[in-house]
Amino acid sequence: MSSITCxxxxxxxxxxxxxxxxxxxxxxxxxxxxxPTLISAETQTSSDTEATDSExxxxxxxxxxxxxxxxGTVLYEKExxxxxHPASITKIMTLIIIFDALESQSIxxxxxxxxxxxxxxxxxxxxxxxxxxxxxxxxxxxxxxIASANDACVAMAEFISGSEEAFxxxxxxxxxxxxxxxxxxxxxxxxxxxxxxxSAYDVALMSRELINKYPKIHDYCTxxxxxxxxxxxxxxxxxxxxxxxxxxxxxxxxxxLKTGSTNLAKYCVSATAEKDGIExxxxxxxxxxxxxxxxxxxxxxxxxxxNCSLYQDDDPPVLAELPVTGGKENSVSLQYDGIFRYxxxxxxxxxxxxxxxQLPESAEAPLxxxxxxxxxxxxxxxQILGEVPILCEHAVEQSTYPDCLAKLMRHYxxx
Length: 415
Hints:
This protein has 11 helices and 19 strands. The longest helix has 18 residues, at 290-307. The protein is globular, with a radius of gyration of 28 Å. The two termini are 19 Å apart. By secondary structure, it is of the alpha+beta class.
């Protein structure tokens, strides 16, 4: 039998053994490497999601929640799902939609916004924009973030969506995407109106989305005082902006975020603060006065910083290429799907947490881009705390008959 005939027969046999695709990992060859380390987790069990009761809090407001921002862990709550009027903390969602539009490049910070009659007619907190007046998007964001300007909110809503109604529809869609089950928005600024409701927990969810996805918001909501220039038919005039969030000056670790008050909502705040790498969100709703609002927020933040510690695993094991069988490529590069974080409230000794790298010896083609092929699992005393998936960095197609033949020919002629 000729050498060429042997090659063809070998290729046929090889091809027949690789024509059945398998998206699953083979159970053979999985190995586990236990490495004691300090870690933290993005997902964790319910047994470690409440703060200790060693230092009871004295909170006057009827509804509050304290959340750690990177993991979403609730450290303290009191009637956190009670539906209440939110006042101007509504504007957190308004800002999310504005930053969504900036991210998608449908608007830019230097775009010019023209104020409508409807926007100029808003009552409550405002910066007294006039109909026909123009300001750029960044100035509008400052007016909303610092001075809680209702007129700027409506002007931006119309600029982005064509009308406030269409913008509010998007706000409600975004709320649903974030799992805000207690929320329904009727306007974009928070003025009292029937049906415009949310909860402390939902406010924490949207606050977390804003500060995690768009940390640039801190550049605006931490400004204590600023000015804008009104240019109207009567000429130019300066208008001062003063931050409505007094915690920016009163609380050492404050990073934002938004206040609100109306007759129905009373006094509300979503206060963010960061200390030692931990960022907390304290939401206070329906406080009887502005002093209680800030006192409760500061008490919640102090409680959180005293009772929890956060570690993130910035140095996971290096991932070697994974061998691939039956593919056009012989191996695939791997990557971790994010950073692993764990928030401890005192019940877990983070020095005793272990991590276990779980990967097969090989995977069968085809493999999709981003397909999970393993995980880095974190555990404590035998209890799994969470994991980071390990993904393919690129797709690997299954070999065809010509691919197999070409491989054999290259191997034959390299001998």
